[in-house]
Amino acid sequence: MDFSPFYLTFKLALFTSLILFLLGIPLAYWLAYSKYRIKYAVEAIVSLPLVLPPTVLGFYLLLAFSPENAVGAFLDDFFDLRLVFTFPGLVVASVIYSMPFMVQPLRSGFTSIPKAWLDTAQTLGKGRWLTLSRVLLPNMKNSLLSAGVLSFAHTVGEFGVVLMVGGNIPEETRVISVAIYNEVEAMNYGQANTYSLLLIGFSFMVLLITYWVNHDKNRVLGYD
Amino acid sequence: MIELDLEKSLFGPEGRMKLTVSCQINEGELVGLYGPSGAGKSSVLRMISGLMKPDAGTLRVSGESWFDREQGVNLKPQKRNMGMVFQEYSLFPNMTVRENLEFALEKGQDPGIVSEMLERVGLEKLEAKKPMVLSGGQKQRVALARAMVRKPGILLLDEPLSALDMKMRGRLQEYIVQFHKDYALTTLLVSHDASEIRRMAERILVLENGQFSFDGEPSQFFGH
Fold it and tell me: A interface mutation test: which of B66, B76, B84, B92 has the most A CBs within 10 A?
């Protein structure tokens, strides 16, 4: 059996989740605490992938990444970076597509922290960075876990966007969902079945462990 | 000395209210801030601490300008030499008792102060415990000790005892008065409990309808 689609999928999900943590924490922090009204527009944009068909996003990303258009040409000329039908392109598309799955749980996490803790940290002379790293993030571990797992799992489950932006190139962009589609197209139902069962098993385990850990933590903290 | 002349428009229980407060508080005084709930007592404290920005006026502490609307001065809470204790304790649940105090240490500050403060409030045996397992009185002692770590010149107490039972209140009152004397603090205590103010404060400022309606000795206000 060819395991490369699995390897590629998990590599993609890992890269996507890590990048999303770096982008999602400051963005969710800003959405939670900013007083600017423009944040509602930003929140709506971040959440668009939740309601749009993946093909819409995939279509526009395909156009944008194309070397014949401004963004694609710029990346090509200045960074020698091609995002259409390549792995880096998949990562960029996945980051955009899975953004709400990272940002929403983190935003809820930030807003669940009592305002008095932020005030207290300020009166103790601490700036934003120390308050974030020592007070906020350690007290929203459940949100961090949910955000990480949801982003990872959602990336594993992607199909429309990756097919549009990445195509179906073995060992480059053929992730597991595309590989299953490919096998079905070729009438290899046995192989499609094996891939699908493995994916179901994996996804179930990830969610099971997440709920388990979250439940245990709540019990220890006396929330449950 | 605290020289305060501030204005702030607030939303009170009876709609919009204008807070116009002006007073001088001498170094070493323990002043009770008394008045009905919703009068703006906490807002006065929050403006002194820098957590709330006044609409207009000036605030000078020991000759240093902390706020001056016209000059565009508004010192951050982190830069103001004060400690604050909140009604709801506001301890960080991810940190032990000792870590809560250590969090308040300034860069390069002698960490010996942490043990000193723990000892003063009689909590050295509980230093490795998380706040969750402490009683209300113990939590507030941690909060008081934590506010003292930076050796502030001003101690701001926002109804620190109102969530405690009578016995605990008495002990905490003694701790506060002792801190006030031993560390030559200027202390502002917000309370709606007349007996508490009579027992602790040497001067009372009564806040009614957004203004100080009385300034003098507690016995003059409450009668003997």
Answer: B92
| Token pair listed for B167 | 């016995």
Cβ–Cβ contact A120 with B under 8 A: yes
Helices and strands: H and E segment counts in chain A: 11, 0
What is the average pLDDT value for chain A, to the nearest integer?
A: 91
Whether residue B78 and residue A126 make contact (CB cut-off 8 A), yes or no, is yes
Phi, psi angle pair for A192, to nearest 5°: -60, -40
Domain ranges of chain A: 4-215
* Secondary element (H or E) of residue B50: none
Tokens 């020289």, residue located: B3
Measured between alpha carbons, how far is A154 from A147 in angstroms, rounded to an integer?
10
DSSP annotation of B187: E
Q: Which residues of B touch A117 (CB under 8 A)?
A: 90, 92
User: What is the rounded radius of gyration, in angstroms, for the C-alpha atoms of chain B?
Assistant: 17
Give the closest-approach CA distance of A170 to chain B in angstroms.
47
Size of interface A-B (CB pairs under 8 A): 55
Please state which CATH number belongs to domain A4-215: 1.10.3720.10
Chain A nearest CA to B224, separation (Å): 37
Residues A148-167: tens digit of each pLDDT: 999 999 999 999 999 999 98
In chain B, where are the structural domains located? 29-49+81-222
The answer to whether the beta carbons of residues B102 and A132 sit under 8 Å apart is: no
- CA–CA separation, B211 and B17 (whole Å): 11
* pLDDT-flagged residues of chain B (< 50): none
Which distant-in-sequence residues (6+ apart) come within 8 Å of A18 by Cβ?
none
What pLDDT, on a 0 to 100 scale, did the predictor assign at position A6? Answer: 92
Work out the average pLDDT over A58-64. 92
Per DSSP, what are the bridge partners of residue B16? B11
pLDDT of B119-172, one tens digit each? 999 999 999 999 999 999 999 999 999 999 999 999 999 998 887 888 888 889
Q: Which fold has domain B29-49+81-222?
A: Rossmann fold (3.40.50)
